[in-house]
Write a structure and sequence with these properties.
Elements: E1 4-5, H1 13-29, E2 36-41, H2 45-60, E3 64-65, E4 74-79, H3 84-95, H4 98-103, E5 108-113, H5 119-128, E6 134-136, H6 144-154, E7 158-160, E8 174-175, E9 181-185, E10 187-188, H7 199-203, E11 207-208, H8 211-223, E12 228-232, H9 249-257, E13 264-268, H10 277-285, E14 292-294, H11 302-307, H12 314-327, E15 332-339, H13 346-359, E16 363-368, H14 386-409, E17 415-423, E18 429-434, E19 439-443, E20 452-461, E21 464-469
Bound molecules: S-adenosyl-L-homocysteine, iron/sulfur cluster and FE3-S4 cluster (F3S).
């Protein structure tokens, strides 16, 4: 079971009052039976971390959690706007709740997250999904109890977006999904405005949490048994810039790394434009820092990188990668790539292919460009048809598959420390991960889930390894 960890500061008193009021309303409605909430999270780990706060607030309002929407009293979808496909899934899944609301009119259906910060989306929900009673954006999270209370008592639909005050609200209770693997946000928002990306518009300006608060939360997590902690931010390399006492990300990482305990420390995402030698040295010299660098390059073509407003070129990216490879033993590299940015030619795309061949990433997150309303790239000429982009995309996957297979094969025979995470669902196998974030499947007793073990790698199958306990 997940537990509620309370962060150092207190949530504003008024929100705690609203949580008590919600608990009272639900107690009357349910005649003493525990109310149930169903939360579905789309998108990246920032959204997962936000959902864990919402679950913390719901838990403090007396709710338990359901695995399906069918028996829930409160249904919430935390949405992602990063690509059209993500948005379409949300619209489809919300539409499917219409019948449930008809059968159980007393349930409250809510939507929140990145999609809801877009005016055209909130308007569409308002018009086309009248059974959705509560909508709030990423900037309204800290007063979710108040919004929920209002929609419960007034019987009116509550919609709130554009509430960006550029602040950080500490003290929101967190109910983490995992007991040994956890997310720890260190900053919010993004100032980079890559021309394809919606994130800066829906998550607001970059702001960092105070170093002491982060360190105290990390210590609490380590004390309560977390073995794999990922520090989160859209661009962790610019951590600390908004703080009065300036701290670099490398300094923060080193301070957390100095906390005693048996754990791994990860972070995402690093932006190549300011991935410093200081950071790479911190990984190389670290005790707990995983030997993994996720450094999204998006495109191997300088022309496209410029059009994307990424502020680095291929040469600078490769210099960073080569320095990291030289310094960090057993380094595992991963990246994000966009195929078919407006104006990209096959020649540009070939530069992306040559870059992945040169670097040899462990794995890649690859996306076909998706136009996002209000971003500069949406307005650009985009003459290459989607079918053509899909062909390039498949070519990229084929090349990467070979590279991943080669990288994985080179690990056969080695002994690796892994964290055992879950059952695979096949035979008696468990799934574990290396420090480099590579999946290892092995036969072992279930009791070992949540522990570090040494495993000998016996086989490689594409990008997955097989191993046995040493
Ligand atoms: N802050 C992170 C990325 C967050 S979004 C970073 O800068 O690396 C995760 C990934 O989604 C991006 O790296 C990019 O590859 C992809 N992405 C973002 N917007 C996109 C769009 N409009 N179309 C296709 N892929 C996109
Ligand atoms: Fe989007 Fe770029 Fe910010 Fe990442 S750094 S969230 S890709 S704008
Ligand atoms: Fe999606 Fe928002 Fe994350 S748009 S990728 S959930 S920051």
């Amino acid at each position: 079971m997940a537990e509620t960890l309370v962060q150092p500061d207190k949530l504003s008193d008024s929100q705690s009052e609203y949580m008590k009021l919600i608990a009272e309303i639900m107690e009357i409605r349910k005649r003493g039976e525990k109310p149930l909430a169903y939360i579905r999270t789309y998108g990246c780990q920032q959204n997962v971390a936000d959902s864990e706060k919402i679950k913390g607030m719901l838990s403090d309002s007396g709710f338990d959690f359901a695995d399906s929407p069918d028996n829930a009293d409160f249904i919430l979808f935390n949405t992602c706007a990063v690509r059209e496909h993500a948005e379409d899934r949300v619209f489809g899944n919300v539409g499917a709740l219409k019948n449930l609301k008809r059968k159980h009119p007393q349930i409250l259906i809510a939507l929140c997250g990145c999609m809801m910060e877009q005016e055209h989306v909130a308007n569409r929900i308002y018009k086309s999904f009248p059974f959705v009673g509560l909508v709030f954006g990423t900037h309204s999270l800290h007063h979710f109890p108040e919004l929920m209370y209002n929609s419960l008592v007034n019987g009116k639909r509550v919609f709130e977006r554009g509430n960006d005050d550029n602040k950080i609200y500490e003290g929101i209770p967190v109910r983490r999904d995992g007991t040994f693997k956890g997310w720890l946000p260190i900053m919010y928002g993004c100032n980079n405005f890559c021309t394809y990306c919606i994130v800066p518009y829906v998550r607001g300006r970059e702001r960092s949490r105070e170093k002491d608060i982060i360190i105290s939360e990390a210590s609490q997590m380590i004390k309560s048994g977390y073995k794999d902690i990922t520090l989160l931010g859209q661009n962790v390399n610019s951590y600390g810039k908004t703080l009065e006492n300036k701290v670099s990300f490398a300094q923060l990482l080193k301070s957390i790394d100095s906390i005693d305990g048996d754990y791994w420390l990860r972070f995402m995402t690093s932006h190549p434009k300011d991935c410093s030698k200081e950071l790479i040295d911190a990984i190389a010299d670290g005790t707990h820092i995983s030997r993994h660098l996720h450094l999204p390059f998006q495109s191997g073509s300088d022309r496209i990188l410029k059009a994307m407003n990424r502020h680095y070129d291929r040469k600078k990216y490769l210099e960073t990668i080569n320095y990291a490879k030289e310094k960090i033993d057993g380094l595992s590299l991963t990246s994000d790539i966009i195929v078919g940015f407006p104006g990209e030619t096959y020649e540009d795309f070939k530069q992306t292919l040559s870059l992945i061949k040169e670097v040899e990433f462990t794995s890649l997150f690859t996306f076909i460009f998706s136009p996002r309303k209000g971003t500069p790239a949406e307005k650009k000429d985009d003459p290459i048809p989607y079918e053509e982009k899909s062909k390039w995309f498949r070519e990229l996957l084929d090349v990467q598959e070979e590279i991943a297979a080669k990288r994985c094969s080179s690990m056969v025979g080695k002994t690796e420390k892994v964290l055992i995470e879950k059952e695979t669902g096949k035979n008696n196998e468990l799934e574990a991960r290396t420090s480099g974030n590579i999946i290892v499947e092995l036969e072992a007793p279930k009791e070992l889930i949540g522990t570090f073990q040494n495993v000998k790698i016996t086989k490689a199958r594409n990008w997955i390894l097989k191993g046995e306990l040493v």
